[in-house]
Structures are given as C-alpha cells and as structure tokens.
Model the fold of this input.
Amino acid sequence: MIQFLQANMGTILSLLGAALAVGLAGAGSARGVGVAGEAAAGVVAEDPGKFGKVMVLQLLPGTQGIYGLIIGFITLSQTGILGGAADLSIAKGLVYLCACLPIAIAGYFSAIAQGKASAASIGVVAKKPDQFGKAMIFPIMVETYAILALLVSILAISGAANVAF
Amino acid sequence: MDKEFLNDELLDNALLPDELFTSQVAQIRAKENTLLSDQALTQLMQCQTYEECIQFLLDRGWGPAGGNTPEELLRTEKDKVWELMHQLCSDKEMHMFDIFRFSKDYHNLKAAIKESYMQKEVPNIYMDGGTIPIETIRKAAADGDFSPLPVQMMKAAEEAREILFHTGDSQTCDVIIDRAALLAMNQAGKATGNQLLSDYAELKCVAANINIAIRACKANKSIDFLQHAFAECDSISVQKLMAATRNGLDSIYEYLEQTSYADAIDAIKESPAAFDRWCDNRMMKLIKPQKYNAFTISPLAAYVLAKENEIKSVRIILSGKVNQLPDEKVKERLRDSYV
Done:
C-alpha cells in the first residue's frame, strides 16, 4: 500500500485537485441554482408569463459548475490521467492540486452568493419585469470573482506543465 | 415582563431554523403587484357611485364577481390572505403569525365572559380567525373553568370574571383582558425571534398605552385603574406615562416628546381618528423595508399587514360613498399604502 502511494502520490494529488474543482464548484452551483430556482418557481406560480426571464436568472449561478468542469478536464488531460499514461512526481501533483483550488473554493462560495443575488433579482422581475436588464447586473457582478478564480486556475495549470520537478 | 405571559406553544415553535422562504417571498413579490397603490386608492375614491367602486375592485381581482355586499367583499379579501399564507407556510410556520390573531381570541374571551354574566346569548359578538376555537372559549366562560386556555389567558380571564361577577364593573373586566392581550402579543412577538414581528407587537403595545393615557386623562381615571390598564413595553416607560397621565394632557405630550413617538403628538391633538391613522401609517413605515427583503418570513408578515391596511382603506372609501361623505373627509382618513 505504502509503495503504491509513493509511486502514485503525484497522480493522486492531481486527481484530488480535479475532483475538488469539479465537486466543490458543482456543489456551489447546485445550491445557487437551487435557491434561485425556488424563487423562480414562486414567481411562476403567480405569473407563468415570467418563466423565460426568471429562468435566465436562475441559470446564472450554474456557470461555476461549468468552470470547475473545465479546470477538472484540463487537469485530467494535462496530467495524462485521461490518456492513461499519468506519471507525476509528488511535487508536480501538489502543484496541480494547488492550481485547482482557486476555482474549487471561489466557485463554491460565489455560486451560493450568486444564487441569493439571483433570487433577489427574481423578486425585482416579479414586481417590475421591464427592469430585467438591471436586475441581471446584480448577480452577474458576483460572476466576476468566479471568472478571476477560473483565470488563475487556468494560468496555474498551464504553468505547471512547463515546471520541471 | 412576566414570563407566564409567554405562549408556550408559540415558544416551542419559535426560532425556526435558518429558513430563507425564498420561493414564498418571490410569490409574495408577484402578489404585491395586486395591492392597491396610493394612486389606485385615489382612483377608487374618484368613482362616482358605490357601484362603480365595487366594479373597480372586482376589476382589480377583488372577491368573486356577482352579488357582492361590501362586507362580503372585504371578508373575502381577508380570507384570501390567510388562504395564501396557509398555502405558503407549514402549520409550524403559521404559528409565527399567531400574534396577528391574539386580539381576536381576547375579544372573544371578553364577549364570552360578558355573555355568561348576562346569562343570555348575544348574536354576532364573536370574531372568527383567532387561534383558539370560539366554542372552547365560550365553554370555559360558561363553566367558569379557564384551564383549557393558555396560561396567560387563563389568569386574566379568572381575574376579569371575578371582578365582573362580584362588582358588575365591565370596564375593569375589559381593561384586564385588553392588558393581558397586549402583554401576550408583545411577549409572543419577542419569542418569534423575528425582528419585524417583535417590532409590530411593540408598536401595537405602545399605541394602546398612548390611547389609554389620553382617554384615562380626559376621564380623570384613578391610579388603580391605570395600573390595571397599562401594559409594559420596551420603548416607553409605563411608570413615566402613568405619572404624566395623572398630571394632565400636556404632561403626556411632554413625555412623548422625549420618546421616539414624538410625531404622534400632533395626531393626538387633532383627533382620535387622526391618532388611529398615525398608528397605521407608523406600521406601514415599519414594514416598508420588507419590500426589498428577498428572504425570511418577514416579507410574508409585511404582506399580511399591508393587505389588512389596504382593506381598512377600502372600507373607509366604501363607507364614505355609502354615506355620501365629501372626498376631502374620506381622504383625511386614508392610510398610506404599502406599495
């Protein structure tokens, strides 16, 4: 067992990074979309004509899950896990794990926060449908931080491929 | 405040877990579009006849169409609010709204005690919509055994019944029960752990105390009566208000000037109706921030109060039309709307 871990620790760490990126960002999105979905359902119960508008707002917190998936996919691809030829040092595996953390952490928390902002914006659309454009801006502001985290994760993974350990 | 005034059932059900009420609040946001704005109330007032008023309300989704008397129409709207709340909230969550219904229970208690004292049935004196079945209260009053009622209600009922049956003093009987109702509401408001409900109960208590002070001062009531009548609350000192009441109206105004209710003075000086209007407008001011709150049960509670306020305004307008009052007189009595 110890020998197995010593031989594959690098790969395990990079896989853990990919799992966290997809898992945490996805869990955050699920919660965010869930909260926004509750609000959307509440509005549609009273006014089904607003379905289109509230659905767009509900979907906004779903992007973090996609960002996590992108990072997870790139990590699996770069480390060779997808091709079945992964052979990483512990240090390199750790680098990949660290590279995945920004989107995992920021993705999780920003998706939940965005879900709440979307729910509040759905309330705006319920009362003033003509203010849909403005209402969308508030949850989109939260997206900024998920995009920054995605950017850093992509840069870190790209850089990790060129680092010699 | 005495702990025994706490409604045990409400305390058990209070402090709900961190419920966001996201879906319910969104549904209420959509419902708020149907509330009558100040502009809509002005339009209603401008209707030439009573029939036009009814048609205006029907067009705005009020009541079922056809054969509506004003009372039916207003009652239907009240019922609709509670039906909606029952749809949106679980039974446990509905207990949060009990403080809106306590006054009906205590009104029924007064009616039942007086009915048993007079030993004859009086029609249409009970109010539906309380937290305790009317029959339970009636039976308790008839038997003289108030143990089936909540503790705080039981103690007040026993005291009030004894006074009424021994002295025939129905005013003191009313005062004891009214005070118990205020204390129960105030305590229950705090027990909910919800700031809006707590502030609502506090405001109701303060308004009642000011009302008592003004009336008692004009009627030159004894200190003993005042001690029975005033209900303790946090934002005004009952002791100071009592002392001011003994010293006259100007002392009451002087004391209120030092509190956050100084703006009530002008309304009190104007007329009792103006003070009632001040109370309702102050309530609207209290709940208006809930229009921007996307979570918690508070926007639901605010909607219930907003709808009650709207029904009150419509009642004033319809009464004005039926009694052919000038629009200016009706407008003076209209409350601020929530939307």
About this structure: The domain at 7-160 of chain A is CATH 1.20.120.610 (Four Helix Bundle (Hemerythrin (Met), subunit A)). The CA atoms of residues 99 and 157 of chain A lie 6 Å apart. Chain A has five helices and no strands.
